[in-house]
């Protein structure tokens, strides 16, 4: 992937040996700060040097990631080779069992189902969110009376705590609840779907919660994308006699590609983490029918206390997800590079 | 002319449907929070409480600690509310400060290499449950389990990627010529940051802060993993409520939900204008 991305900033800003403009600026600034005045000035002058200055934020950030991620990654791998449960003494005394946990995980149907189900949920929810968000953004495109109110309301769901959404829907979806009431009124006959205890309906409920909340985000991304469309190509196409549909399909949609890419990446990356909705809405039930991978691993670690098995499953999940992450990052890089090329004359 | 009008009507119809779908759940929660226990579950469901009451709010907001006994529990949320507020605010503030400084350093000097922001983002894409299992063991060793510091550090790490990516877009819009001019005139780098970059990206900083604040305010999984009894956030409280009670206490829970939602929504309204630009992730044409 080592493509030729444009340097993030015009050549002058990068460290180029013998760049006259830059070094003279540096020299001047250092001259101005009088080094002898106090030790604070001395420190500041040191921090001023580009060599030091540019690393200032990197030290704490890298330190934080090193502190939190490295030991955990090692611990994760190590634990997965043991056979340890929280109930069985200290982890460093646990017996080493090699790949047993991994084999166990791959033979665990409930785990495989949870992985499949999570991807399934994402595969239904994300396209729905994209389509709805895009449709709504198109409808809200040109100014009309009431547009501001609609936009404000449509953005509301993403500001609500997901756990609250899960809880709220669990209230709406009870068998004799308001949702069934509304459905009955609309259908003109009594409808009694058992949203939280029917296998299929519960799945729909979880997907519905995700769509309800995150269509707001795709809507936001698409609204900003549509607002940022350049006018010239569209005008040119109109002059050349293209109709609305042709303009949309051949001019606007290709221009919107980077925006669509962000929406897809953002949403699918979050959809694989679904945890709050099943937890609060259905507790993974009925049966295991809404148990996502996050919920199952959580239970594995905390309810069943099978830490080593959970660690092995986490690693397997990590491998699966990294394929997806690799693709997502490639897409983002490509789109950003293309934009940078367009911006440079 | 006729077609145009028809389109206008159709548009309103479509938008109104989604507006109803969006508002109904929120409306129901707010209304439930004002209902007496007799009205929580009825057939037909009551959309307007016949005798509005504040009892649910009083119940959850009275000082004291939550008690769990015999399948019945009384939850007090003053402590979780404070914990949530403190943890989310601190983590978000530090994340915005560090992350935007980092984004600046990357855009201007290319520090860390071309792929740095992508690497950071790819870390964020890993589902947190993957790391949750060893995290507990690790935090127990460090004595950070169930502490404010522990949770703040984690939230800092999870918000940083978002801050960096959102701020990239805003910083790229600051004209570098302005910074150069100030430097030539003798301003120090810190002065340039404070007097030029900061004011020009102020809107971005606010939007970014709000976004990561929402994330940290709502986070459930890691909070559940890394806390026990000392520290408790609002989402955890709701989850405890949901899983522990046999007969549901819909009213108090709805009150908690409303309280948890209100501050964020108000903040959101205030910065709505800038929200749109914050989500371009550097992928919008100028």
Short key terms for the protein model shown above:
heterodimer; A: 345 residues; mainly alpha; MetI-like fold; 16 helices; 0% strand; B: 286 residues
Write the layout of secondary structure elements.
The complex is a heterodimer of chains A (345) and B (286).
Chain A: H1 20-32, H2 39-48, H3 50-53, H4 58-80, H5 100-106, H6 109-139, H7 147-155, H8 162-172, H9 178-187, H10 199-227, H11 231-239, H12 244-255, H13 257-271, H14 276-282, H15 293-303, H16 307-343
Helix pairs in contact in A: 4-16, 5-16, 6-10, 6-13, 6-15, 8-10, 8-14, 10-13, 10-14, 11-12, 13-16, 15-16
Chain B: H1 2-32, H2 55-61, E1 67-69, E2 72-74, H3 78-109, H4 116-125, H5 129-142, H6 148-172, H7 176-184, H8 189-200, H9 202-218, H10 221-226, H11 234-244, H12 250-278
Antiparallel strand pairs in B: 1-2
Helix pairs in contact in B: 1-12, 2-12, 3-6, 3-9, 4-6, 6-9, 7-8, 9-12, 11-12
Compact overview of the structure:
The complex is a heterodimer of chains A (345) and B (286). Chain A has helices at 20-32, 39-48, 50-53, 58-80, 100-106, 109-139, 147-155, 162-172, 178-187, 199-227, 231-239, 244-255, 257-271, 276-282, 293-303, 307-343.
CATH fold name of the largest domain in chain B: MetI-like fold
Under the CATH scheme, the architecture of the largest domain in chain B is Orthogonal Bundle
Largest interface: A-B, 127 and 106 residues
Order of helical and strand elements of chain B:
HHEEHHHHHHHHHH
Rg estimate of chain B, integer Å: 23 Å
- Which structural category fits the helices and strands of chain B? mainly alpha
Mean pLDDT of chain A: 83
**Terminal Cα separation of chain A, in Å?**
24 Å
Number of domains of chain A: 2
Radius of gyration of chain A: 27 Å
Oligomer: heterodimer
Range of strand content of chain A: under 5%
Structural class by helix and strand composition of chain A: mainly alpha
CATH superfamily of the largest domain in chain A: MetI-like
Mean pLDDT level of chain B:
85
CATH class of the largest domain in chain B: Mainly Alpha
